[in-house]
Amino acid sequence: MAANGRPAQAAIAALGEGLLEVGVSPQLTDGQLNRGYGGDAANVAAMAARLGARAMLITRLGEDVAGRLLLSFWESVGVDTSAVEVAAGEPTGLYVNERLPDGAHRFSYHRAGSAASELAPANLHDVPIEQLDALHVSGITLSISKSAATTADLAVERARAAGVLVAFSVNYRAALEPDHERLVEAVRDADVVFVSDDDGESLFGTRDRGQLLKAIAPRGREAILTRGGESACVVTSAGTVEVTPPRIEVVDTVGAGDALAGAYLATRLAGVGPREALHKGVTAASLSCQRSGCARGYPSAAEVEAARRRLAGSQTA
User: Fold this and answer.
1) Is the pTM of this model over 0.70?
2) What does the alpha-carbon distance between residue 141 and residue 189 come to, in Å, rounded to a whole number?
3) Are β-strands 84-87 and 54-62 bridged in parallel, bridged antiparallel, or unpaired?
4) In terms of Cα–Cα distance, which of 271, 267, 179 is closest to 224?
5) Does residue 11 contact residue 133 with C-beta atoms inside 8 Å?
6) 202-253, pLDDT tens digit by residue?
7) Phi, psi at residue 135, to the nearest 5°?
């Protein structure tokens, strides 16, 4: 599946935001907070890098402590940060992840006026999009600001002209007041699209997989449909592959969908088929749910491979 005939180490760029995560948990004492690293585009790049892809992140950060922490983390997991602009006088976005006693979450975002929300076409000037194997964007990238959406459109246009694969995660967020028509168009124009059942209900009014596929009417090759802790499937012209995640003790589900997307893309672009790629994606997502801190808890390639073999064996036994 590698674009441009390059099945070796895949080159992927994710366009969007990174956010510092402030974790609040019932298990923490007064005065304690957990630090994490989030933002859907940044998460996809981090997971892809952990699985050996050449993963670039295209975003902006403030010249502040949150920005420095994010940049340091991304570099520590192998993300190419050469397309990350550090903007003096602008804040880095963050969110508070409050874990509730019943295992649910409550989020509050502080991204208005953030550096990442001011992504602009100038941020693409020195990015070698034409040399990529894949460009990944999301519904959040299209919703955080008009300039970010315009930047995403231009990046996709350049990718299309060069024959670079375009991947899209819906990641519908009602609070951002997304443009429904724009998101639907992005879904249908993508080569690879990731849609959760929540996304499907918000965007197309249904959680039924058959109806979703009819609504998506993908131009491209693959649609990956997920249902949280239930089975995920990938639909291609060759048929449908379904993978059920293992039963686990969930610690933190934040960023699991991004882990799946990053692992899936890195694996497919390395020349592996959709069945194994989905196994790796589901495995990476499941492992991430057993740890806190969003991308901080993403597993290594060795951990994913070992767990994937166990998962594949249990489902074929």
Assistant:
1) yes
2) 16
3) parallel
4) 267
5) yes
6) 999 999 988 988 888 766 579 999 988 788 999 998 889 999 888 888 888 8
7) -120, 130
